[in-house]
Design a protein that fits this description.
disordered N terminus; three-stranded antiparallel sheet; DNA polymerase, domain 1; Rossmann fold
Length: 384
């Protein structure tokens, strides 16, 4: 979408940047404007550039955009700050992902609160067929490490293109990234700060190893103040990017449980490693399982069954033709896609058909009642 390039000399090296990207970046810097309001402004006016070109009166005429937000948008320093951010991103070899472009994580885009801009550094492929989020306590036990290591090793033998997403924190996060690097799996750390720093600093070496096959991803620009709420925001991105979130170890409270809550709200699958009832860092996992907010996971095979990721399935629904009579246009699109691809996960089907998750779920329920489709574990649907 953004194709106007400007050459910028920095320390005798010439960098090129898509200058129009400064507008969505600037929009993320407006006080009082979050992802939902930013998308409302872009949708109402056509693009981010027009938002900044609009008059204050035009901005105030948009529903829920009042005088205060309009005045914040008209502040003169925003575009300059955004241009400096673009220069920084180019200087460090990073990249800006805008939510309307193809390389933006499609799974995350399904979530209502997805950021309009992400910053990435590294060599990453975010829209691979399978993505697992691995989260847990910073005080991981040997039991938790063993589970992370063995599960990722088993998944690697079947799915070498698997993407492992975590938060680069101490404990389970670091273990998941480190084991992924050792196994040659792509791994991405979603961080709660800009790309001008690494937190915790002890993971700088690990993050550098991740760059060749993965790297770092964030919604925060450089020089932002590290705050607890940043890491809560980071957790929603991990959940939104994943097909399944695996909670390895957690106390009765903690960031990993927030990630699981986000995953459930996004209609993602959640798995949890059980532990002994009196173990402090198994209490959170056990409670997730007990309250039916997570599936009990003991090994990689449990994940394969939950997600319907088994290899070598010979059953092909394409051989079962469905009559198109009395089907709506959208129902015909669903049947056509299932005839072509076989059983599909709800998230993947929504992406391919470009249908809102709520609309697709309602359609599939109606089709299930009509005995056209049948659900299976892992959010999978196939023809009856």
């Amino acid at each position: 979408m953004f194709r106007e390039l400007l050459s910028i000399p920095i320390n005798d090296v010439v960098f090129y940047m898509d200058t129009d990207l400064k507008y969505p970046i600037a929009l993320t810097m407006v006080k009082g404007v979050g992802p939902a309001i930013a998308r409302k402004l872009i949708t109402s006016l056509g693009d981010a550039k027009t938002v900044f070109e609009a008059s204050r009166k035009e901005l105030e005429s948009i529903p829920n955009i009042g005088r205060i937000i309009a005045s914040q948008i008209k502040k003169s320093d925003l575009l300059g700050r955004a241009e400096r951010e673009l220069q920084f991103i180019n200087k460090v070899g990073g990249r800006v992902l805008y939510f309307e472009e193809d390389d933006y994580p499609t799974r995350l885009k399904e979530c209502e609160d997805h950021p309009i801009v992400l910053y990435q550094k590294g060599n990453m492929r975010l829209n691979v067929p399978r993505v697992i989020g691995v989260v847990g306590t910073r005080r991981m036990t040997p039991y938790g490490k063993d589970k992370v290591d063995s599960i990722l090793e088993e998944l690697r033998t079947r799915f070498p293109d698997l993407l492992v997403v975590s938060g680069l924190a101490h404990g389970v996060d670091g273990c998941a990234h480190r084991r992924s690097v050792d196994l040659g799996l792509q791994t991405v750390g979603v961080v709660g700060h800009g790309l001008d720093m690494i937190y915790p600093a002890e993971h700088r070496s690990l993050s550098e190893k991740m760059m060749a096959n993965g790297g770092l991803l964030t919604e925060f620009h450089s020089h932002c103040v590290i705050d607890r709420k940043n890491f809560v925001s980071r957790n929603r991105i991990i959940a939104g990017m994943s097909d399944i979130v695996l909670v390895v170890e957690s106390g009765i409270k903690g960031g990993a449980l927030l990630t699981a809550e986000f995953a459930n709200s996004y209609n993602r699958d959640v798995g949890a490693i059980p532990g002994r009832v009196n173990d402090l860092y198994s209490m959170g996992c056990n409670n997730l399982i007990k309250t039916n907010r997570a599936t009990l996971i003991e090994s990689a095979n449990d994940i394969l069954e939950l997600m319907n990721w088994e290899e070598g399935k010979e059953d092909n629904p394409a051989a079962r033709k469905v009559s198109y009579a009395n089907l709506s246009e959208k129902e015909r699109l669903i049947v056509g896609r299932l005839e072509t691809n076989g059983d599909m996960q709800l998230n993947a089907l929504a992406r391919e058909l470009q249908l809102p998750m709520s609309d697709l779920s309602s359609l599939l329920f109606d089709m299930e009642m009509k005995d056209i489709v049948t659900p299976s574990p892992g959010g999978m649907y196939g023809l009856k």
